[in-house]
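[job 4471] stage=fold_predict status=RUNNING
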Amino acid sequence: MDSQTTDPNNQKVIENNLSIFQALIPVFALIGMLAYNVYVFEDDALSGSNQFILLMGAAVAAIVGHFNKVPYASMVEEVAQNIKSTTGPILILLMVGALAGTWLVSGIIPTMIYYGLQILNPTIFLAACVVICSVISIATGSSWTTSATVGIALIGIANALGISLGMTAGAILSGAYFGDKLSPLSDTTNLAPAMAGTDLFTHIRYMLYTTVPTILVTLIVFVIIGLNIETTGVADTDSILASIEESFYITPWLFIVPVVVIFLIVKKTPPLIALLLGTLLGAVFALIFQPEIIAKLGDSESLNFFSGYKGILNAITVDTAIETSNESLNDLFSSGGMAGMLGTIWLIICAMVFGGIMDAIGALSRISRALLNLFHSTFGLFSSTVISCLALNATASDQYLAIVVPGKMFAKAYKDKGLAPENLSRTLEDSGTVTSVLIPWNTCGAYHSGVLGVPVASYFMYAMFNYLSPFTTLIFAAFHIKIRQLTQKEPEAAQL
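[job 4471] inference complete, writing structure tokens
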């Protein structure tokens, strides 16, 4: 999945004697409050009000816990553990903001857009986004890194071509999560088989049955959209290219930096180190290739040590905007730096508070048990797994928990049904991994929305691979397509 640095296998599932009604009270309260809040604030809901609503949902969960004699200290401790688990993502978000700043002022992002405008015409653009992001994500094992590098550049190209940013973000995330799902470097691709009790490469091979048809449908839809798309930027491409050349020194040498970052990720360099090196390389290239821009950011007419230092630090930490002669490019060539990521970090912390208290009072495990008891057929078992993953992505706000909790809860049920564990691991990925990006307050939804600068509501309907995947796995279960049976009865002691 994402480039998180915590160990998801350390996630624990707390069980208490809550009734299903009590476990669902905070969920219904949160959904109701969020729905009303979004109705009132519309697109501004993520500017702060949704964060407070998540805390109110956590307060409702704490009240339920109090009446069930769950110690306050236990709830606070679980919240602390949840927030601690997001240390990696939070640091990565800050580093992505820093990287975006230096990649802008160095001309790396403008160069990507410059050459991309000449190669990617609107007819193939969306399908190309899917393919490009799929390749990068398979190579890196990280949808987060894919969004933070080529994703940002593709959004810029779409903006210049006049293509819907929601469509583009949906295509980027479809490709990014396709690659993330199948890459042996991805932590969720390793986590799902570990929870289900199968091995990594059996899991990957078995996922191909549902993943390949889904991505093919996604590609076909984006090709059809591309053939019928109406753009505003095509006719003005020449003037856009000229404006970019006026404002930045454009050279293919600037591609060295993103190539180095992708190489580092492929070589399993810790993402924080790779992003830091990418940021520092971007700063060096900015001083070499864009000295006038850096001098201006450093409040000086010429580049010297002090203006260079100040200009680079401003690009890394705060809002930066490069004005061009083309008004449509001015919003594109701006970056919030590390400060621009603080709203997303705020959302993640508040989501972890809600998820932590829900786990501490035993609500998450109670909801999963109820879903497990709801269905008795093979299709019902798959359905309950999918629903459980979706529910946990929405309530726990964490992709890892959406894999760990159902994985632990359903492993024995699959064995009792005579189903091979790869059935469970595939379903966990088809419904837990890919749908996390569709929830605005989930860590994945908050991250990608913040990095790409596109609200979840805008890209939701175009992230086709992500929301088609659960349906694909249910279709396979309903028609008993590629549902592998256990080859022999496993010893009772080996059952989870």
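[job 4471] summary: The CA atoms of residues 126 and 225 lie 8 Å apart.
[job 4471] exit 0
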